[in-house]
Amino acid sequence: MPPEPHAILTAYLCFWLAVSGAVLGSFFDCAVSRWAAGEPPFRGRSRCSSCGHTLSASDLVPVFSFLVRRGRCRWCGAKIPAECLAAELAGAASFLCLGAVFGAAPALGQWLIWAALLLALSLADCARQLLPDPLVLGLCVNRLVWVFLLREDIPQAALTALAACAVPAALLCAVLVGEKYTGRELMGGGDIKLLFALALYFTWAQMLLTLLIGCALGLVWALCAKRRRAAVPFGPFLALGAFSTLCFGGPLIAWYIGLF
Ligand SMILES: [Zn+2]
User: For residue 87, how far is its CA from the centre of ligand 1 (angstroms)?
Assistant: First the structure.
C-alpha cells in the first residue's frame, strides 16, 4: 500500500527540520564558544580553535564534516571538541521530534523557537555555568507573541501560566529557606528564572514533571560524572526535562491525574 500523502509531507518536513536543527546547533555552538572565550559571538568566519585556519564550506557541514574528518581539523589534525557534534545532534533531534509531534501546525513555530532558545541556553550553561538573561527573556517574549498569533484565549492562558508559576515560586521559597540554613547556594538564580519562563508555556502538572525529570537526570549525571566536585550546570537538564514533558509527557500526566 503506498504511504499516505500526509505521512510523506510529515517525513519531508521532519527531514528539513532535522537539517535546520543541525545547522542551528552548529551555529549556536560556535557563537557560545566565542562568547565563553570573551570574543564577539557573531563576528568573523568560522576558524579552527587550534590553528586559526578559516574553515571552508566542506568543513562546516553539520554532523557529516565531523564524522568524515573523524573529529579532527583538516589543517592541523587537532581534535574538534565533541560538544560540536553533540550540539548539532541535539539541534537535529529536537527539531525532528517537534516536527513529528506537531506536524505542519502553526504551533510548531512557537515550539521551534522555544527549542532553539533552550539549546542556546543549555550550551551557554555548559560553557560558563550561566543562563544569559536575554535568552530567558527571549523565551518569555516568544510565548507572548504566539499567544496572539495562535489566537489563544488570553485570560485562560494567563490563568494557566499563573498556576504553573506556583511550581517555581514554591521551589524558590524552598531554596531560599534551604540556603539560609545551610549557608551555601543550593540552586542558581538563572535556573529559577528559566523555570518561570517555562511556566508561561506549561500547565502546573507539566512544570512538576519537567522539574522531576530535570532533577532525576541531573542526579544521575552527578553520580556518574568523573569529576564529582565540579559544579554541574542544571540548565541543560531542565531543558531536557521540559522537552521530554512537551513531547512525551502527555500520557504520563493523564494517567497520574486519572488516579484521583
Ligand atoms: Zn586546525
Answer: 20
